[in-house]
Amino acid sequence: MKSVALPLTALLAFAGYTVSVMLQAEQSLIEFGISLMSRPDTAQVVIDLYLLATLAGVWMYRDARQRGRSAFSVIPYLLLTAVFVSVGPLLYLVVRGLQDRKKPVDAEQAA
Predict the structure, then answer these.
(1) Chain segment 15-67, per-residue pLDDT in tens
(2) What DSSP assignment string belongs to 36-73?
(3) All structural domains of the chain with their residue ranges
């Protein structure tokens, strides 16, 4: 994906909204998570979200390895995914897109 506009827009909008919500929150992130898991209906949504986050983590790992990057290079994205779910994969897509844009320029300079 050579374009970073969509993931960057989503990342900035969601991260901004997340910061706004966290600044106004009356409980900690951990307390909020516990309260979500205490009811079956909200627990189902959280479990579904983290299943999707796990799939995104597997994809990020495999994508990084196919691109010749070390497994350790994905750890920051996985940690962000574990805490903020969407932020990790969105940031990964932005960074990957920027790296893809940079490659043709580097190849031309080397020639």
Answers:
(1) 999 999 989 988 888 888 899 999 999 999 999 999 999 999 999 999 999 99
(2) HHTSHHHHHHHHHHHHHHHHHHHHHHHHHHHTT--GGG
(3) 5-110
- Element of type H or E holding 1: none
Q: How far, CA to CA in Å, does 106 sit from each of 5, 100, 110, 111?
A: 21, 10, 6, 9
- For residue 22, give both structure tokens: 């966290």
Q: Which amino acid is at 64?
A: A
pLDDT at 2: 54
Which residue is associated with the tokens 């959280």? 46
Q: What is the distance between the alpha carbons of residues 66 and 102, in angstroms, rounded to a whole number?
A: 18
pTM score: 0.83
What's the half-sphere exposure (Cβ side, CA atoms, 13 Å) at 99? 10
Nearest to 43 by CA among 55, 51, 35, 54: 35
Sign of the CA dihedral 31, 33, 37, 42? positive
